[in-house]
Amino acid sequence: MATAIRVATIADVPAMAALLGELFAIEADFAIAPEVQARGLGLLLERADAVVLVAVAEGAVAGMCTVQLSISTARGGLSAGIEDVVVTARCRGRGIGGTLIAAAESWAQGKGALRIALLADETNAPALDFYDHLGFTRTRLVWLAKPLDEAG
Fold this sequence. Notes:
Elements: E1 3-7, H1 13-24, H2 34-46, E2 50-57, E3 60-72, E4 77-87, H3 96-110, E5 115-118, H4 125-133
Parallel strand pairs: 4-5
Antiparallel strand pairs: 1-2, 2-3, 3-4
Helix pairs in contact: 1-2
């Protein structure tokens, strides 16, 4: 069955929060908290410098990808950052992830981004191999995080 990629809407938030639950189940750095993830998704949906894409297969949201713009001093222009890419387990292996990434790249290019980068869990070997296959290269940079709220 065909898969359609489209910009997410507020009605997609529950399905996307569930997808993030699948992703966070394999990423030790994040806690599964659907209400927190729903709040973050809602904020992304309101921003002009971000997009949330969903893949719809078999009449349901089967995957998602979030992209946000920032300024890169190294590139002297806009850079796009992909933070969340996930395809539900039952739909993996159908090319949905690659199609989502391609749509994210297209959106970023349309916004004038000079680079696209993504975050991935260093222990998620299948994801890292997938991103390598799509032409992403690993860098020597290390992403560091420090909570600025009491929730950590």
